Amino acid sequence: MNEHQNPESKKLTRDFLGKISMVAMMEHSKMPWGIRDNQSRMVYINQASMDFLNIPRGFDFEGRSDEEFPCPWSELADEFRAHDRKAEANEGAEVICTSYYGREAKLEPYYAPKFPIYDDEGRVLGTFFYAKKFSFISINDFFSHLKPSVLTLDPPVDIFTEKELDIIFYAFQKLSLKDIATKLCLSHRTVENRLQGIYDKIKVNSLEGLIEYCHATGLDRHVPKKWLREGVEFFW
């Protein structure tokens, strides 16, 4: 029996992992995968990612920054770079990217986590990512501006509790206190008290002040992970 036929000859062990090429794994995947260097220049993308990103066939992508791609999502270059840096600094970052994807150029959201790539001495060389389509529970409940965007599952500031972030998420959509209370299964008074606590933390005294704060810090693009689930059709 030759090596290819012997199931023990290529048994997956820790030692054997060092012989497996990351690119070979990506190359055979039907899921979009890609690798970027620590300057956010594209190093590698598989065929599934070429189709997903709607990159023209024959386009030389290697070494190019996002804004150099002839694709609608290139307008999000600054936000992509920011998330690359966050992934490199925090051992990964989870983002939601919404733009015109696929060969049919449909306006859709994709979950795209990124992870740092290290050399043998622990230095960050760049990031790798994959993309997977998903849906929100209800687009009408959450967003009123239908445009390409990048959302993050990781809050850009760390001064709020998870419960406060839930309040901020709905308050930013300008839901009434009563509606927020209903969605979170809380009393009107509890929501009112938590919202006041949020105002005190950021030194504002109105919803308008909170909304301005969200725009300034990036909280306007934050979505609590608990509100996401797969299996619901959603086009943005």
TrEMBL record:
GO terms for molecular function: DNA binding. Transmembrane segments: none annotated. It comes from the Bacteria. Keywords: DNA-binding. The keyword Lipoprotein does not apply. SMART domains: HTH_LUXR. The keyword DNA-binding applies. Residues 153-218 form the HTH luxR-type domain. InterPro entries: PAS_4, Sig_transdc_resp-reg_C-effctor, Tscrpt_reg_LuxR_C, WH-like_DNA-bd_sf. SUPFAM superfamilies: C-terminal effector domain of the bipartite response regulators. GO terms for biological process: regulation of DNA-templated transcription. This is Transcriptional regulator, PAS and GerE domains. It comes from Hamiltonella defensa subsp. Acyrthosiphon pisum (strain 5AT). The lineage of its organism: Bacteria, Pseudomonadati, Pseudomonadota, Gammaproteobacteria, Enterobacterales.
